[in-house]
Amino acid sequence: MKDKLICNPDIWLCHNCNDCSAYCPRGAKPGEVLAAARNYSFQYYAWPKFLGKALANKKSLPWLFAVPAAIFLFLIFLGYGKTGAEPGKIVFSKFLPVLYIDAVFIPTALFAIIAFALGLKRFLTDMNGGTMPPVGAMVKSLK
What we know:
The chain is an all-alpha fold and about 140 residues long. The chain has two domains: about 1-45, no CATH class; about 60-143, no CATH class. Helix content is about 65%, strand content about 0%.
């Protein structure tokens, strides 16, 4: 039952506006139920798994901000000892050279694209009953 629920695309139709929760005669809070199903779906389809669990847990939010901030601070002071800024005209490329920005951005962007593609592939495979739908069929459905 759980596997059928998380691979169902209908859980993404709810925007948690709470209209159904306000009028539900049993007080079941359907919006909260679907939000929990979406949260579990993020954890299930995320790649790597530890990122899915980190996104679902409020306690790991500081770490999700601290690690990239520490990487940038490390790169700022790498080899400088200071920021490289001199009095006078402000040149932003002296504060953080483009090479350092690209050294962080390109691998991060590639990682995000690969993680998204793998999660989407797993979701589409589960949604289609264990087989990956043909790309041509997906393109036709977008028209």
